[in-house]
Amino acid sequence: MSAIECLDLCKHFQQGDSVIKALDHLSVAFEQGAFVCLSGPSGSGKTTLLNAIGGLDELDSGEVRLDGQRIDNLSKSELADIRLHKIGFVFQAYNLIPVLTARENVEFVMQVQGIPASERHEKANAILEEVGLLGMEHRLPAQLSGGQQQRVAVARAIVSKPKLVLADEPTANLDTRSMEKLMEQFVALNQNHKVTFLIATHDTRVMAYAKRQIKMVDGQIVADETR
Ligand SMILES: Nc1ncnc2c1ncn2[C@@H]1O[C@H](COP(=O)(O)OP(=O)(O)OP(=O)(O)O)[C@@H](O)[C@H]1O
To answer: How many angstroms does the Cα of residue 22 sit away from the middle of ligand 1?
Structure first.
């Protein structure tokens, strides 16, 4: 059994008179501990695929299974529970909460998970130090640069060591050194804790880290290479 199984996924969008096939009968499976980059031209369906796997968007047809459990037909609250406990998101749309400090943003998910305050503080401080934000934990997002905000978002996604991290253009705002640090963290989590990473990216620097590279065009997989 694969950790993630996608079977014959279809997702269409109506745009004016035309129908866009964001996912066109796409099937793919990922093992636990996979480290995958999704590439492909803008509009090829990368984000739509991550959304489907993360239970963020309804499909027209097809099945998504996480650890053998079908998730595409679950209720909103069942999906929220799976997201909370199994998946870390590094998505632009999941941006930081502006009224919370960097540390509070990182602690937010742990708070919802019911982790006690002292443990939350300890874990949040440790992960903020790891992503190079020590001393900035009391700043609000608006007081941080784009790249620093991105690192807070990454810290929040990985602090609870989810089984799966879904990342959509995680290095979009990062200079080379910050990109390398981020990818090294991803690789360490992947190697030491067998966290699965699915990363949609246009960044060839990021693709160099992938163990498996999938290329999408028009909602289909056109290349799938494992190194
Ligand atoms: N909510 C929506 N309404 C209408 N069309 C949509 C919607 N979401 C996605 N699409 C369309 O579906 C197609 C796939 O979009 P998607 O965002 O998955 O592509 P992508 O490969 O992630 O692109 P990018 O690299 O630019 O992020 C695109 O043509 C997009 O315009």
So the answer is: 6
Condensed to tens digits (0 to 9), the pLDDT of residues 197-226 reads: 999 999 999 999 999 999 999 999 999 999
Does 82 have pLDDT greater than 80?
Answer: yes
Specify the residue for token string 């943003």: 105
Ligand 1 and 44: CB distance under 6 A:
yes
Q: What is the pLDDT of residues 106-155, one digit of tens each?
A: 999 889 889 999 999 999 999 898 888 889 999 999 999 888 888 899 89
Nearest residue (CA) to ligand 1, atom 25: 42
CA of 10 to the centre of ligand 1 (A): 13
In terms of Cα–Cα distance, which of 207, 168, 187 is closest to 90? 168
Q: How far is the CA of 47 from the centre of ligand 1 (A)?
A: 7
Q: Is 31 in the pocket of ligand 1 (CB under 6 A)?
A: no
